[in-house]
Design a protein that fits this description.
Blueprint: H1 4-21, H2 25-44, H3 46-53, H4 59-69, H5 76-86, H6 95-115, H7 118-133, H8 136-143, H9 149-160, H10 166-178, H11 184-199, E1 202-208, H12 214-228, E2 232-238, E3 246-250, E4 253-255, H13 260-272
């Protein structure tokens, strides 16, 4: 979602402030949530975004604006991160928003890693993803950037609170903030991909319109592990819109039609029971 230079700036801020926002579980969650909400507020105010990202702007003037907006409303670490990112020359006015999302995501993922729930969070987000595939009205609402972020966030909180871990719920809200740049399901896949990186494994999502047997899944997992040479978590996503086809999604990179006949032959071999571990 970020340009290469934007990713570098966001990573620099993460390295500088990670120890600060990891002082306690509650603090990490607070800072991550405040950064996400701040990103939405800035994104929805285009004139504010231009002021904060213009290279000719005076830093002290920008800090004064941030003080007026956030003041004592956010944690000091949250404010310092926003100010640090504002003290950059962004070529794209949306890059400040994107950088805030990246730092927020790191805080959430770091918290989940500390709590030992990375897999749980990833599984819960996958289940929510699968539910949204079958529920176009909710999916479209979450992807509708003309709807204020807070309305979308409150809908998610009402829908998911008590049914998923609070970190999973918060990440679902971060995805609807990130939808300012893309569709909701794509934003969820971006988050899942970043969790996979932290877990040091490849997550392969197999979209299919029909159910595979346990034996077929095992054979496919064996082939993926052999081909990739890395730990693989295979998720089966039942999607009636696939109309009999199969699609493999590694992290956030879709490989389906681009593989043409090779992919068709591979999936045919899986279904015919011809794919075996050697």
């Amino acid at each position: 979602m970020l340009t290469a230079s934007g990713e570098i700036k966001a990573e620099q801020v993460i390295q500088e402030f990670r120890a600060e926002y990891q002082k306690s579980d509650e603090h990490a969650f607070l800072v991550a949530t405040e950064l996400c909400d701040a990103a939405a507020l800035i994104e929805e105010n285009r004139s504010l975004t231009r002021i904060l990202t213009q290279s000719s702007g005076n830093l002290q003037s920008k800090i004064g604006i941030l003080q007026n907006i956030f003041g004592q409303k956010v944690d000091k670490v949250t404010f310092d991160i926003i100010a640090k990112l504002t003290d950059n020359h962004w070529l794209d006015v949306s890059s400040l928003n994107d950088a805030l999302e990246v730092v927020s995501l790191d805080a959430y993922i770091s918290l989940a890693e500390k709590l030992g729930i990375l897999k749980q969070v990833q599984d819960e987000l996958l289940q929510f993803y699968q539910m949204l595939l079958q529920n176009a009205p909710i999916r479209d609402f979450l992807s509708n950037k003309t709807v204020p972020y807070m309305r979308r966030k409150h809908m998610l909180l009402g829908l998911l609170t008590g049914k998923m871990h609070p970190v999973s719920v918060a990440l679902s809200c971060l995805a609807t903030e990130a939808v300012e740049r893309t569709r909701y399901l794509v934003a969820l896949r971006w988050i899942q991909g970043e969790i996979a990186k932290r877990r040091e494994l490849v997550v392969a999502n197999l979209n299919t319109s029909y159910t595979l047997s346990d034996e077929q899944i095992k054979r496919l997992e064996a082939v993926l592990i052999k081909k990739i040479g890395s730990k693989v978590q295979l998720n089966i996503i039942i999607d009636e819109n696939e109309t009999g086809l199969m699609k493999l999604d590694f992290k956030s990179v879709l490989i389906d039609g681009s593989l043409g006949q090779k992919m068709k032959a591979f999936t045919a071999n899986v279904n015919a029971g011809k794919v075996k571990e050697r």
